[in-house]
């Protein structure tokens, strides 16, 4: 796969078709957002296994549950804010039945002019609260393909959160996704370590590099938010002095909360600071929003300097 910047949602749409041509059990379900989620590629290439429900996410969830419990592999893609808004249907039809459907929430994080109602900023916290559902967030094109392939093989439900904008490739073709594993992308963590995921990984690397003459801050990518390999997380924590989480998601119930649960359970006595969002966002160009909320490289560096 090309290493040039590529939008995660584009990769999702292309790779899903590639897998579906080999696996006849894969179906795609769209609640009237096939162009935005890139399921339009699936409709064009494999129309006989594409289902359009219209603006009816609850129906899409019900159909996915039925297909999954019949031995098929349905993939529902919609904006993460809309999918997580159907938490009752997901809880009962998918979670309670342990139906192995794949739910894909696109437009995770700050998305730009579409506005605060469209941005998925609480979706991880909603999905984390539902039993049986595993949660993944790829940071690059290669990781996106690996996670989608993993979810297709799962016999339990999963939620994949993907961003709208283009992301740099941080891995090579030898990358192997392992469920629960934290991936160290910058190992020099004498002064602190950032736990992050998805779209924020490259921004945290930028922040760490901005501070490299003052502090040694490591960066750890967490593509598997639920489950987490606690022993590997604890091993990383033991190597450093301060702990940080950075996410383009609410700090209530997101990645930072998941890390705090581990820290609390094992009585870790090291400073831990969360950085993310705690309200609805403004509307504006996406890079302006990341700068406004101090979630660009310089903003994250400012957060680190303040708390180190």
Structural commentary:
By secondary structure, the protein is an alpha/beta fold. The protein folds into two domains: 6-167, 3-Layer(aba) Sandwich (Rossmann fold); 183-307, Rossmann fold (3-Layer(aba) Sandwich), CATH 3.40.50.920. Helices cover 39% and strands 20% of the residues. The strands form three sheets. The protein has a seven-stranded mixed beta sheet with strand order 3-2-4-5-7-6-12, with helices on both faces. Helix 1 crosses helix 8 (141-153), helix 4 runs parallel beside helix 6 (87-96) and helix 9 (201-210) packs across helix 13. It starts with 5 loop residues before the first strand and ends with a helix.
Q: Short description, anyone?
A:
39% of the residues lie in helices and 20% in strands.
